[in-house]
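sorry to bug you again but im stuck and you know this stuff better than me. what follows is a protein written twice so to speak, once as letters and once as structure tokens for the fold. id like you to explain what the token line says about the fold, in plain words if possible. anything you notice is useful, everything is just below.
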Amino acid sequence: MKKILILAAAFLTIASCKGPGSGPLVKESFDKKDATQVMAGQKSTGPVTTDKIDINIEPCEGCIKLSDLFSGRKTYEGKVVRITGRVTKFNGGIMGKNWVHLQDGSESGGEYDLTVTTASEATVGDTLTFEGKIALDRDFGYGYFYKIIMEDGVVTR
């Protein structure tokens, strides 16, 4: 008899489920556009994107352009470089780091966006210079694979 009652309770629970997005943890007034930025830890002064943006940022003294980095990736592997670019995306506090996407308007082989891990805060739309070590073929698991990434970047201006 206990088994029948347990099965009936389980059946009623499943049958009363309204599908994905239902239940006590779902907030009905959730604004998806704002939630995406909040959930991703993004602070924005402009549109958030990793699509190529139309800009032309000249490298600072001692900096390299992203196109040079992408085309000569093997040359820069394990080396500390400086990059100036516009912040196009910011994800804070993931795996104990902040994740910043930079673009400077240049590109090589279809690559134009560099991901930087950093302890620094950034706001989408800022133009910043990062200095950090370049790593190739970094796999962080869960589908996060980077052919090229700047690790432990520090904002220098």
